[in-house]
Structures are given as structure tokens and as C-alpha cells.
Design goal:
Helix content: 25-40%
Structural class: alpha+beta
Oligomer: single chain
Strand content: 15-25%
Pfam families: SdpA
Distance between the termini: 74 Å
Keywords: Membrane, Transmembrane, Transmembrane helix
Number of strands: 6
Protein name: SdpA family antimicrobial peptide system protein
Radius of gyration: 24 Å
């Protein structure tokens, strides 16, 4: 019995060492990887990681995007996170298509020079945006949606927030924290 335990332990350690070694080799020599030390003239292999590891991260200075749907004169937040039950925890592509459609709308608004309102607003506006902005008084930009994507129809408000440093945000109860936000009211047809 003791002999089988030793054999099982040696087998388990060798499998673990093989897996670690294989992962390290693939991580170092796979194409789109920041750890790749290959020269430009050397052969490149297909990466096993999507877009390198930077695919999973975004810069902290990148603005935050929120989408609000206008229902009965009120702004109701649409959750764009993929890891939800309605998007099958990321397996359903509707969330990605929704994000693509929102980015296409923003691109069309920027290209056409349409109305984009910029404010310096108290950080607490996130708790209830309806206390700060009224959906009835906003002037909406008319945007024609792409024919392939038909997820967004109706009145929406896209909110783009510039992030503040965490050291300031965690003290928002001590003093008033303001941040720059841009509102893009759109009527998508």
C-alpha cells in the first residue's frame, strides 16, 4: 500500500511539473504575448491567449460608459455587464452586440458633431440620476441604427464619466467630489 502512495505522489508531481513547464513555454513563445522574447525575424506562433493578457484589462484612465433608457419620463439604467444570467454569464453574444451598437451610436454622434452636454457634476449623481437630470427637458440627437444590429430602439441617454482617483472617491462623504460627465441623449430609429 505504501508503494502505491509513493507511485501516485511521484506521478502527480511529474504531471504538475509537466503542466507548469508547458504553460510557461507556451506563455513565453506564443505570438501576441507581452512575455514574448522572440526576435522579429524569428517564426511567430499563434497565441493561445486572446490578444495577449491585456485583453482582460483596461486602463484606469479610460472613461466609464453607462446607458440609460428613457421610460415614462424617467431614466432607467441598462446594465451592460456581460456576467449576468440574462446574457448566460458571458456565453450569449447579445451583450457584445449591444456594446458594439452603443459604440457605433457614439461614433456617429461624434462624426456628425451632434449635441453632447458636458457637466462638472457631484459624484453622488450616480445614486439617482433622475435627481440631477430630467429626461423630458433633454434635446435628443436623431441617430439611425445599423440595419444588422437592432437591439437599441427608442430614447436613450449615454453617460460618459471621467474617473477620479480612488483616494478622492473613498472620501466623498467628507467633501464634495466633482467629476466631468458627458451626456449624449439619442433617439435611435
Amino acid at each position: 500500500m505504501n508503494r502505491y502512495i509513493k507511485l501516485l505522489f511521484i506521478f502527480g508531481c511529474s504531471v504538475l511539473a509537466y503542466c507548469i513547464l508547458t504553460t510557461l513555454l507556451l506563455a513565453n513563445y506564443a505570438g501576441n504575448n507581452p512575455l514574448n522574447k522572440l526576435k522579429i525575424n524569428a517564426a511567430n506562433y499563434i497565441s493561445i491567449f486572446p490578444e495577449g493578457w491585456s485583453f482582460f484589462t483596461k486602463t484606469v484612465k479610460e472613461p466609464s460608459l453607462s446607458l440609460y433608457k428613457v421610460e415614462n419620463g424617467m431614466l432607467k439604467r441598462e446594465d451592460l455587464r456581460a456576467f449576468q444570467s440574462r446574457f448566460l454569464w458571458g456565453a450569449n453574444r447579445n451583450n457584445r452586440l449591444l456594446s458594439v451598437e452603443v459604440s457605433n451610436v457614439i461614433r456617429k454622434v461624434n462624426a456628425a458633431g451632434m449635441r453632447k452636454m458636458t457637466y462638472l457634476q457631484n459624484i453622488k449623481f450616480r445614486e439617482n440620476i433622475n435627481d440631477y437630470f430630467s429626461a423630458d427637458t433633454l434635446l435628443y440627437n436623431n441617430v439611425t441604427a445599423d440595419e444588422q444590429l437592432k437591439l437599441l430602439r427608442g430614447k436613450y441617454v449615454i453617460v460618459i464619466e471621467d474617473f477620479r482617483p480612488w483616494s478622492i472617491l473613498k472620501r466623498k462623504d467628507e467633501f464634495e467630489v466633482k467629476q466631468k460627465i458627458s451626456l449624449i441623449p439619442v433617439l435611435i430609429k
